[in-house]
Design goal:
5 strands; globular; Anti-sigma_ant; anti-sigma factor antagonist activity; alpha/beta; STAS_dom; Anti-sigma factor antagonist; five-stranded mixed beta sheet
């Protein structure tokens, strides 16, 4: 595999961060798979560590075109890490392929899944 191929793998997933009403929002775009999960885990792990205290994070998957079992595992792992610190992770997953994966697999990890960013921001804490 040459360096151009490796570069393409790393650009298959983009993560941008923002703040909205006391929440840190990580907006993901691209594919979450075996090749991109290590970078995603590191980025979200750093985000939780940098957040301090009780992290309040929304992961917006609206621009994600593909997510496999490795990706789902990474999202569940971030959820567990935040919960251990007394924090919350919410997912924004509009209707589509990624939402279908969540519906089929039905993860039983109390993942809070919302249709829109606005829904995730305005829902009362559980």
């Amino acid at each position: 595999m040459d360096s151009d191929d490796r570069r393409e793998e790393h650009t298959k997933l983009r993560v941008s961060l923002g703040r909205h009403g006391g929440w840190t929002v990580a907006s993901l775009a691209g594919e979450i798979d075996l090749l991109t999960v290590p970078g995603l885990r590191a980025r979200l792990g750093d985000l939780l560590a940098d957040h301090g205290g009780r992290p309040r994070v929304i992961i917006d998957l609206g621009a994600v075109t593909f997510c496999d079992a490795h990706g789902l595992s990474a999202l569940i792992g971030v959820h567990h890490t935040a919960a251990r610190r007394g924090g919350t992770v919410r997912l924004v997953v509009p209707q589509g392929r990624v939402r279908t994966i969540l519906r089929i697999t039905r993860p039983t990890h109390n993942l809070q899944v919302h249709d829109t960013l606005n829904d995730a921001l305005t829902v009362d804490p559980a």
